[in-house]
Amino acid sequence: QDINAYNGEQPEEKLPFPIIADANRELAVKLGMLDPDERDKDGMPLTARVVFVFGPDKKLKLSILYPATTGRNFDEILRVVDSLQLTAYKKVATPVDWKPGDSVMVVPTLPDEEAKKLFPKGVFTKGLPSGKKYLRYTPQP
């Protein structure tokens, strides 16, 4: 109820995401969700703000541990989920600071001929001092 109230919603409303009550902190300890630096009045480590993203294959795809003193960045979490979904189904990777709609990188293991067939909007190589052509980009499929 406190989480809903903080977000300005009716405390009776069901949360739009799963949440687990862990009053004894057993799960937090088991999953390493404790802030190593921040402690409560009794000297116990505070529970950190941890985000776990699991794929449909039930494998961990992402974990982010924010210190207890730092709030989560939901824009970043959503950006990463968009990237994980895109890269799971297309043979691309997302570069630093990528946002949905930006160009993506063609995975280096994909041969040039196959890349041309998979990405009809074109594949563009970034020129590098080494002359190597491993940074290939394409508009987001």
| Strands, count | 8
For the record, the CATH architecture of the largest domain stands as 3-Layer(aba) Sandwich
Helix content: 10-25%
CATH topology call of the largest domain: Glutaredoxin
CATH homologous superfamily of the largest domain, by name?
Glutaredoxin
The helix/strand series, from N terminus to C terminus, equals HHEEEEHEEHEE
What strand line-up does the widest sheet have? 5-6-8-7
Number of domains: 2
Query: How would you state the average pLDDT, rounded?
Result: 88
Rounded to the nearest angstrom, the radius of gyration is 21 Å
What is the makeup of the main sheet? 4 strands, antiparallel
How would you describe the shape? elongated
Keywords: Antioxidant, Oxidoreductase, Peroxidase
GO cellular component, one term: mitochondrion
GO molecular function: peroxiredoxin activity
Pfam family, one: 1-cysPrx_C
